[in-house]
Amino acid sequence: MKGLFKYIVLILAFALLAVLLQSSVLRMILPVWAVPNFILISVVFLAFRLPTARGALIAFALGLLLDVSSAQLLGPNAGAFVAVFGLLAALSQRLFVQAPVTLACTIFGASVLSSLIFMLMTYEYKSIGGHVLLGLFGQAIVTAIVSPLVIAGLNRLVKPDRDIGATSSHRRGRR
Amino acid sequence: MASLTDQRLRMSLSALALFCLSMFLTAQTARDPSIAASGSVVVGEVLAPAQSLNRWLQGGVSGVWQEYFALVDVQNENVQLKSRLAILEQTNTQLLEMRHEVMQLRDLLAVETEDAGTRVPARVIGYDATQWVQSISLDRGSNHGIQVGMAVVARNGLVGQVMAVGPRTSKVLLITDPASGVDGIIQSSRARGTVLGAGGMECVWQFVLREDPVEVGDRLITSGLDGVYPRGIPIGVVASVDSRGSGMFRSIEVTPTVDFSLIDYVLVITSNQPLGTSAIRPLSKGGNSNAMEGGLAERKAAQR
Questions:
Q1: Residue in chain B nearest A61 by alpha carbon
Q2: What does pTM read for this prediction?
Q3: Do B40 and A28 touch (CB under 8 A)?
Q4: Quick one: B74 exposed, middle or buried, by C-beta within 10 A (0-12, 13-18, 19+)?
Q5: Which site in B101, B179, B191, B211 is 20 to 30 Å from A37, CA atoms measured?
């Protein structure tokens, strides 16, 4: 339980740092489409490392953090991230994401999917221009390119052998 | 094995429940955006010191670059600037004379002049973390007299309006956001319509009557009729006019005069209080401005 708490704190600290990077540090020097979505990368990381109900709750919290920082609608990012998490967590035993190329492809797919879900959820309330769609496609590519590095960093930050619920359950399952 | 299946089932059910919760929250906050705005204030206040530090560091780095490394062609530029300065000094003398004359006439007519002390300068310390919302964060908040709904301008034109305020930070919805709407008129012909954000860096000018004279290159300014933005602030320049179709209105693209990716400092106009308690209206597709509603109502009345 202590391991899980530490895990959650580390992921949330990473998320805050990611919001800072996305909203300020990188956004001041790069065009908006070239800023990677670090939060989405951490959601994909979670889907493979903690494919449990707790993982879903953390993915929801990460999305909500983005929604809150935007100050417009609460829920679309949270919903999109939870849906992406649910899908990837369900497929986590079948997908091989150890190779950087397959990981980048998975992140690209997750990025496009989360954008589509966001647009569906906000269809009634928000119109999205063509410029934004192009930007989202660019961001999906950039996010996919940097994802192997970020995932490697997250793997170093959160050691796989920690007792975080998922690993212990998997062990029990194997027994 | 059963435990693994149970775990997956629990995860799937939780994800489904959380997705439904997200849909509910989206619908709720679309009706009342102030909920999201108050949450944003907390995140803004937490991140503000780091964002300010980042801004300061980036300012230092670019300062070093500009002062020591980017000195190529400075001599040519200096000669050009000196010649321009001579012309401007001449113009300035004429303008000072005219100003003096205008002031005397104002005194005679007892016209009130604008109070320069009602503008709060603020520094841009961040942008939105996603591409879905076009907004900026400022390093000034309610402690400095800023309130929700106040207009924000830059050196060369309109920026947007304040949508969330914390004690030391505030968030500004840019005019390029699809949820923003500004009542605008063409400076020369006085043709009127509503400027809506198109996402990205562009705006669209809607509800402009087909017979109104509008040409590419026309300058668009605020009309002041929406009760949020003061009159006469430059909004943008007409980039293209689409006269196809047979509807009552034309679709016009507008390029804002402000480059939102380059602004460092802005002015928050604290004297022009918005109409109603909250300037951010419930979201609806195609903009949320009272300008649009007001403009349409006026047009309908005129048609009748």
A1: B18
A2: 0.74
A3: no
A4: exposed
A5: B179
